[in-house]
Amino acid sequence: MAITIKTPEEIEGMRKACRLASQVLDYITPFVVAGAKTIDLDQKMNEFIVANGAVSACLGYAPKGFTPYPGATCISINHVVCHGIPSEKTLKKGDILNIDVTVILNGYYGDTSRMFTVGNKVSVAAKHLVDATYECMWRGIDAIAPGKPLNAVGIACERVARAEGLSVVHEYGGHGIGRNFHEDPFVCHYDTGDNRIILQPGMIFTVEPMLNAGRRHITELSDGWTVVTVDRSLSAQWEHTVLVTENGYEVLTLSEGYPALPDFVKDKVTL
User: Fold this and answer.
1) What residues does 244 pair with on adjacent strands?
2) Which end of the chain is more exposed for a tag (fewer CB within 10 A), N or C?
């Protein structure tokens, strides 16, 4: 495992890329309404990314064994866990969805995702899932500090999920990021002995728990990308890119339109 400690120059480059990724989600928020086609949302976001001097890291992304990803973003609705491909599908009142954006700006990757609800009639169970996953992410982030084990993130995330009666997806997790899309370390969102790495200032990685309302088990569809819950229960995810600092952490993927912060981090996080 080769974890890169970012230089001050690299950290500044990451700040700019990550802020832009968050601004993409600010921009698209008013368009996430009933009747909107996810392919149209994707096109709007791609145009915004390009207009701001960046490119989508997702468009054409093709790890070994995968076909190139066809969208600029991932839009995952209801029981889709992650990697939902934008399409002609229209949003309906009551839907919940995750929009995942990764941009490349001046050679640096900025990665973030948010949950959205469509209309004012989202079910109590869906709202509970979305809100609990938001707290789960922030509890994981708030566990970050130099000298602590990376597993502290997973412990904090799993504690929230269990308390709220939700399950944590194991197969996907956070990751190091910088001049590459996916770097070491892999970040589990559950308690595991595999995350014994000691955090150091200059590390940058994502915290992006995926929680299911039902069982944690998932499966991949025939398109080679879309991941869904096996039991078709609802799934939710929030994601930030985070820098380990000398005194704690800095959340890089924040912007003016970001949702209200939880009370327990308001004094630690600045937009």
Assistant:
1) 249
2) N
